[in-house]
Amino acid sequence: MLEKVEEFNMDKACVPLVTHKDLEPYIYRIIDGDSSPILTGKSIITMSLSSGTTQGKPKYVPWNDELFETTMQIYQTSFAFRNREFPIKNGKTLSFIYGSKQFKTKGGLAARTATSNLFCNARYKCGMNALQSQCCSPDEVIFGPDFYQSLYCHLLCGLIFREEVQLVSSTFAHSIVHAFRTFEQVWEDLCNDIREGVLTSRVTVPSIRMAMSKLLQPNPELANLIYRKCMGLSNWYGLIPEIFPNAKYVYGIMTGSMEPYLKKLRHYAGELPLLTADYGSSEGWIAANVNPKIPPELATYAVLPQIGYFEFLPLKELENPTFLSVDPQPVGLTEVKVGEEYEIVMTNPAGLYRYRLGDVVKVMGFHNSTPELKFVRRSSLLLNINIDKNTEKDLQLAVEAAAILLAEEKLEVVDFSSHVDLSKEPGHYVIFWEISGEASQELLGECCNCLDKSFVDAGYTSSRKVNCIGPLELRVVRKGTFQKILDHFLGLGTAVSQYKTPRCVGPTNSMVLQILNENVVKNYFSTAFNA
């Protein structure tokens, strides 16, 4: 046994830790048509694309059948735990999923988002049927070329099969919130389609019209029922259970960058439970939610050791200056300590070996012998000018604190982002807000001060006090600005199923920064640290 451990450690010594940037030369050889065994023994014929919302452009990640198998394994595992607590019958799922545009690389490989690679697999539908999760929308809607037409028809299919819908889901919470915000705008059109049995003329894609014509029949009774229920709602609270009376829960990834959407999602869900989905990335899956009753904000994920090889870089070593000159040494799955934070290193079946994923997690305990992880943040700093270190979570907490002031006036933050403005000395934080209505100058000034005071990082507060960091700036953008950002990424080929609002817009995301700045209607500077 000791010999095997020594042999394995020697193997690890021969394979260095890598980032995506380290692998790019090899990945681009594959993309350009080199079929030799570069990263895997068997040739890679498909590439996944990350959303690209962080860096401004998507990353290419190898995809193969083995990754599909690990995906189905994690789906089956989490379904077993979920169904034990929230059993569902053989009904349907209102699933807001969308295929992305596929293209061929220079070397002839198919390239599309990771979610689309999953949906396109011939075995996906059979696998989901086995999990009693049959989508109520036809393939023509899922893979339609126009997102808005597909979304409209997803909603229409859900209404047609409203009695059979057992759960409402999407890959990310953002997609579910976006869908029901759209429902608020188009519900009367949907009722009219059901009443007449004819699809609205706004849907123009022939394949979608043909598929929907097979489902639509004149049903004035159903249309009137939905109309009455919508009219009876107060500010759309409890919309989902009211419209889908047999739905057991709402399901999707709700942690990390999705947490800001939970308040609105709970508003739509009413008393219906919110269940966060599993933990993974475009590079592969890592862990399953085996405690589905826990609220998303407290969710932990049990690592599935059979779907990949996982190592963990102790964060205290990565961030301690005394260790910076030494190569970090990861620990194994059984060597992690409860309460400690780590950066994940993964080895997957598609050619990523000892790959630094860039996610920071905290070990909360063990499920049998496998660690249970809580997602903390991306490892890269989000907002940083001087000695300050503010992460995406810090930004979220600051926005939530300031949003309480808005809520007192029955207003809400629709979405938000941030930017570090270094155009003048000293540099300062910029927070972009889209809000649901008109707020007074006084209120927004208070919100700006609250944002500034809510960044409690010692490096930030000390830098603000001596003016090494300038006053925080709140820029309010006009309604629909974040929709324009979504449209921008859709134009680049991103699937809505995989879209995440960029929380910090850096220099590589110049187009997004331009959209935000062109739509600013008001701006305010903090006076929170004025002497």
Task: Profile the largest sheet.
Answer: 7 strands, antiparallel
Work out the helicity level: 25-40%
Strand content: 15-25%
| Arithmetic mean pLDDT | 90
N-to-C CA distance: 67 Å
Q: What assembly state would you assign to the polypeptide chains in this entry?
A: single chain
Tell me the number of helical segments per DSSP (H or I, 4 or more residues long): 18
Backbone CA Rg: 24 Å
Low-confidence stretches: 1-8
- Strand order, largest beta sheet: 10-11-12-16-15-14-13
Net shape:
globular
Write the layout of secondary structure elements.
Elements: H1 2-14, H2 20-31, E1 46-49, E2 60-63, H3 65-85, E3 92-95, E4 103-104, E5 110-113, H4 114-120, H5 124-130, E6 134-135, H6 139-142, H7 147-160, E7 165-172, H8 173-196, H9 206-213, H10 220-231, H11 239-243, E8 249-253, H12 262-269, E9 274-276, E10 279-281, E11 284-288, E12 301-303, E13 309-314, H13 315-319, E14 341-347, E15 355-367, E16 370-378, H14 392-407, E17 413-421, E18 428-435, H15 441-454, H16 458-465, E19 473-477, H17 481-491, H18 510-518, E20 520-525
Overview of this protein structure:
The protein is α/β, with parallel strands linked by helices and 531 residues long. The chain has 18 helices and 20 strands. It has helices at 2-14, 20-31, 65-85, 114-120, 124-130, 139-142, 147-160, 173-196, 206-213, 220-231, 239-243, 262-269, 315-319, 392-407, 441-454, 458-465, 481-491, 510-518; strands at 46-49, 60-63, 92-95, 103-104, 110-113, 134-135, 165-172, 249-253, 274-276, 279-281, 284-288, 301-303, 309-314, 341-347, 355-367, 370-378, 413-421, 428-435, 473-477, 520-525. The strands form four sheets. A seven-stranded antiparallel beta sheet has the order 10-11-12-16-15-14-13. The chain has a five-stranded parallel beta sheet with strand order 6-3-7-8-9. Strands 2-1-5-4 form a four-stranded mixed beta sheet. Mean pLDDT is 90; it is low at 1-8.
